[in-house]
Write a structure and sequence with these properties.
Number of strands: 6
Number of helices: 12
Order of helices and strands: HHHHHHHHEHHEHEEHEE
Helix content: 40-55%
Shape: elongated
Distance between the termini: 78 Å
Radius of gyration: 29 Å
Largest sheet: 6 strands, mixed
Strand content: 5-15%
Structural class: alpha+beta
Length: 351
């Protein structure tokens, strides 16, 4: 089987190194004007590469190897995401010494990265940038953005690729999460969830202490929070004061932004009853911002009125799980301290 040097597809009876479609793509990529006669394309390509590298006295095989390494370098050089400087330097050394090379395997980078691998990374990054631009330019409606987030970027989370794709994909994942943050703010008004995700992308995120009054008011107004506080007070109603250590009680919020930001809040609480049967309480809610295991499509969040959003939430959780494994997303603690008064009728207000 005779494969194209660029895409590695079987060229059957062709004696050329590149398939016709691939060599046309190479001419376009290198911005070289193609010769009029098709059979001259490959020879003309070699001549152009030799001229660009100032290497001339080489045999037929060395011309092929030179083209292979030169194109590999050019595809890597066009990448925005990932650090390939050390590899490109080594490829340059292989190019400079091609006239002294007797076997392709003698080259430093021959077994480190194939031309097809560099070409694939380049194509995937191009696809990534195209989809990113469509979302950033608001070319899609909300439902289409959800679909694009799921299908248009899933390939960058393939952790079973070689080290150079991982290098590039990790950098793309960082940009992907920046886009998710923007989409979350723009379409779903998930301001806190977006802020916490942004914090997780820092090199060494410290514990996040929630002090914003709007968020605190959102917490004490949440239906599930009120329900949980009532449940606790009913349990300890016969006492004048009580203390609940961290880990004995927990809750999830009804509000979507709070739910995604603080999925399961552990509760630490001390409270005392007033003469009018109201309560004063100091509460600490805490959660670890992390993604610890894969979720089934509706494990993480389910909204019967918005199935696409339900699927999106679990999908993003699972993608975040991979990003955390690769060190793109880092875990940290989220903490909020509340000093509240609970009236006899269950109304909650801040001190």
């Amino acid at each position: 089987m005779h494969e194209c040097l660029l895409c590695e597809r079987d060229m059957k009876k062709s004696k050329n190194e590149f398939g016709n479609g691939c060599i046309n793509n190479i001419y376009k990529f290198l911005d070289i004007e193609k010769p009029t006669r098709g059979k001259d394309k490959e020879l003309f390509l070699y001549k152009n590469i030799m001229k660009k590298t100032n290497i001339y006295k080489i045999n037929k095989e060395q011309k092929i190897w030179l083209a292979d390494r030169y194109l590999t370098y050019q595809y890597l050089d066009k990448l925005t995401y990932g650090n390939f400087e050390k590899l490109k330097k080594q490829i340059n050394e292989d190019i400079e010494n091609v006239d002294k090379t007797e076997k392709f395997d003698e080259m430093i980078t021959s077994k480190k990265i194939k031309l097809k691998e560099a070409y694939d990374i380049y194509k995937k990054e191009t696809k990534f940038k195209t989809n990113l631009a469509k979302i950033e330019n608001n070319e899609y409606k909300e439902e289409e953005n959800i679909k694009l987030l799921i299908t248009g970027f899933s390939y960058i989370f393939n952790i079973y690729k070689n080290q150079y794709e991982k290098n590039s994909f990790k950098a793309m994942q960082y940009v992907f999460w920046q886009t998710v943050i923007e989409v979350g703010r723009r379409y779903f008004n998930y301001k806190l969830a977006a802020e916490l995700l942004q914090h997780s992308l820092k090199k060494d995120p410290k514990d996040f202490i929630i002090k914003d009054k709007k968020i605190i008011n959102m917490i004490i107004s949440d239906q599930n929070f009120k329900k949980k506080i009532k449940e606790i007070l009913d349990k300890y109603n016969k006492k004048q004061n009580f203390y609940i250590s961290q880990g004995k009680e927990s809750m999830s919020f009804k509000n979507n932004d709070l739910y995604f930001a603080i999925h399961k809040a552990n509760i630490e609480m001390s409270a005392k009853k007033n003469e009018d049967s109201s309560w004063e309480a100091n509460i600490t809610l805490s959660d670890t911002f992390d993604f610890t295991k894969f979720k089934s499509p509706f494990d993480y969040y389910f909204d019967a009125n918005n199935i696409p959003k339900s699927i999106l939430s679990s999908t993003l959780y699972n993608l975040a799980f991979i990003s955390q494994k690769l060190g793109v997303i880092k875990e940290y603690n989220v903490i909020v301290k509340l000093t509240i008064k609970i009236q006899k009728n269950g109304e909650i207000e801040m001190f």
